[in-house]
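Running log. JK asked me to keep both predictions on one page so they can be read side by side. First protein, sequence followed by its tokens:
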Amino acid sequence: MTDEPPVSRLGSLARVLLVALGGGIIGLAITFLVRPMPGPPGPHGVAAPTPHLLLLSGAIAGIDLALLVALVAVYLRTYLDTRARFAAGLVVFLVALLLQTFVTAPFIVGAFGFGVGGLWPFLFASSLFGAVALAVFLFLSLE
């Protein structure tokens, strides 16, 4: 192990915010370039998302992806330093979650010509809750 001083709480928070901001900007830019289609309306008259909501969803998906990449890096480094099987299990789980988040991101769905349709409120809420949980997880992992 290295003898690096622990990162302060403020430093951990700054790192989490920096990762989230970078991911949001990248997600927004990719969504803007791909311009996913809104898709058909959902059941019971749920309207398809507006282009602005699609951009917001893309930004949140970018935040999720950036936080997951950072978490994979943290726990991969932990595994390489300690060879702890628990850290290896976390890396496998986080990579699977990263792939799931990537596949369901609006800019990936749009890149393949599909619209998110009437399920967008649920996908949006899921991404938003995931971003908050991943930010807390990364903050705690950096302390």
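And the second, directly underneath as requested:
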Amino acid sequence: MKDKLNRREKAHRLSNNKIFNIKFQRKNYLTFIGGLTSIFLGYILLANGSITLAPILLVLGYCVIIPVSILIK
């Protein structure tokens, strides 16, 4: 019985740790939608034959905007 309480306390402490409490705000979601839009436009341009702007939009969306949207506080 005492062992179960210790497990519950440890789980509760971990859930209250700031590392595990990631709460997205409106700016996170808007930035994420911007990243998805960049990726979507990149694929559309790639299908139409744009070999310069499409890869730029895709790399920007995947490597910059989406990670930034996750890291913004």
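Observation for JK regarding the second prediction: The first helix runs from residue 2 to 16.
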